Amino acid sequence: MLVNLKEILEIAEREKNAVGMFNATGFDSLQAIVSAAEELDRPVILAHAEVHNKYNDIDMVGPAMIAVAKKSKVPVCVHLDHGVSEDMVYRALRLGFTSVMIDASALPYEKNLELTAEITKIAHAMGVSVEAELGRLVTGEAGSGESVAGKAEDFYTDPEEAAAFCKKTNIDALAVAFGTAHGFYTAQPKLDFSVVKSCAEATGLPLVMHGGSGVSEEGFKKAIKNGIRKINYYSYMSKAGYLAAKAEIAKSESGYLHDVEYAAMRAMKEDVKTAIKIFSE
């Protein structure tokens, strides 16, 4: 069942839990994500990140994501994750994505607000939900170790600024910065849950956690308790697939890529199931 982000987050708000968003970088991960959600009978957000477009172009993988969502037995939102260019956002809208994230968080506040408001007006006219970001994670979206200068707390979302931003842009969900990071963690992150609580109270909107992979189960539960309703999770799902593929290559001499892809798919599915269970409690 294909739904938009606003609809799927209403489920999370009603149940006081969070919906997982998982990036599909190929047909193996696409199958892993949706089959995991169906097996657990839980809603899920299926995403294509602009940074992953070089691996699978949105014009090819997007229609497949939408088709799978429509056939799914559970609510599925098809979402553009971290759309940093207007071109990518408009491509997602034309393809029929039911949610887009316009990530202008690297721009000055006023520019972020102006662009986000413009995208939101267009998307809402098409029945599409919009997520935006205020504040920044200290690592880039690619999660490959690149970072911006400064301490994590220098980039935390300001609740008062967030309230004004959400009111003026009319977005449906806000990604907030409170200590998480993209990619793999070398140490347990120090999360400031008071930022989440203050932003939730100030905006009245569902909040989004980026950099979810690697956060402890306790950290997820505290974030959800304070207002997080969408959790972005990719790196450790991908790592599970990578390790399974590596093991399959080491033990098998079949020579067939599909054997490796199938092993990766099964491992990613189990990792997604574990994440969904934690987010749904």
Intertermini distance: 22 Å
- If helices are DSSP runs of H or I spanning 4 or more residues, what is the number of helices? 10
SSE string:
EHEHEHEHEHEHEHEHEHH
Q: Could you say which overall geometry the principal axes of the C-alpha atoms support?
A: globular
Mean pLDDT across every amino acid position: 91
Structural commentary:
Helix content is 49%, strand content 16%. It is of the alpha/beta class and 281 residues long. Helix 4 links the parallel strand 4 and strand 5. Helix 2 runs parallel beside helix 10 and helix 6 packs parallel to helix 7. About 4% of the residues have low confidence.
Describe the secondary structure blueprint for this structure.
Elements: E1 2-3, H1 5-15, E2 19-23, H2 27-40, E3 44-49, H3 58-71, E4 76-83, H4 86-95, E5 99-102, H5 109-125, E6 129-134, H6 159-169, E7 173-176, H7 193-203, E8 207-209, H8 217-225, E9 228-233, H9 235-251, H10 257-280
Parallel strand pairs: 1-4, 2-3, 2-9, 3-4, 4-5, 5-6, 6-7, 7-8, 8-9
Helix pairs in contact: 2-10, 6-7, 9-10
Quick overview of this protein structure:
The protein contains ten helices and nine strands.
Keywords summarizing the entry:
eight-stranded parallel barrel, 9 strands, globular, 281 residues, 16% strand, 49% helix, alpha/beta
